[in-house]
Amino acid sequence: MSEGTRMSKTTGNFEGGVDAYKRGDYGTAMTEFRPLADQGHAASQLVLGMMYAAGQGMPQDNAEAVKWYRLAADQGHAGAQDCLGYMYKKGYGVPQDYQEAVKWCRLAAEQGDAGGQDSLGYMYKKGYGVPQDYGEAAKWYRRAAEQGDAGAQYRLAVMYARGHGMPQDKSEAVKWCRLAADQGHAGAQYDLGRMYVAGNGVPQNYILAHMWLNLTAAQGTEKAIKDRNTLGEKLMTPDQLVEAQRLAREWKPKGK
What we know:
By secondary structure, the chain is mostly helical.
């Protein structure tokens, strides 16, 4: 069998596993991924690790998740390196070890993996496994944010809002918060709503404030439910409330 034929067969099996996984058919996904993982297919090893970590199609088992993440990470798979770093950070399936977490997150980050960059930024922000350094945190958050990672965009916005690692800049905070909110990030949507309530970095606008708080409330954020209701009951006219509700109904996430 030629190399091209072997690659075609592997790709087909992997794609079949991905399709089954997306359908929630974890048994079929496991049937497709496991032989590939046993043969050393790094992407299959990563997904198998994710399934064990989440208990999808089998009992949840962090130690097995770590095993498969490590096999893929040792092959240089950036996503697996980030996942392995996360397991070390949390102490899931391995003893908690911030230095090991930083090691694996850095390997992923230096390959340009947005998840690894975001994770490394978090480690620098908290001082986990490295000296606390807001400047380094902001650097890695920015690299992930520029790739469209919503979590990193939100965390970069918070750094700007608080002046951590760079001069405080409300306009930059709003910019990055909006990019994350536009993707559906609940924390960013809530903060953007609060910015519009107070006119903090943006012109005060109760209609937009209510829209963003309403979108956050729909994700089950209790404080957003309370703030949305207070805003609607005490500060808005009936017409404003109708318009805000219309905007929330018609909103769609960007980039998805």
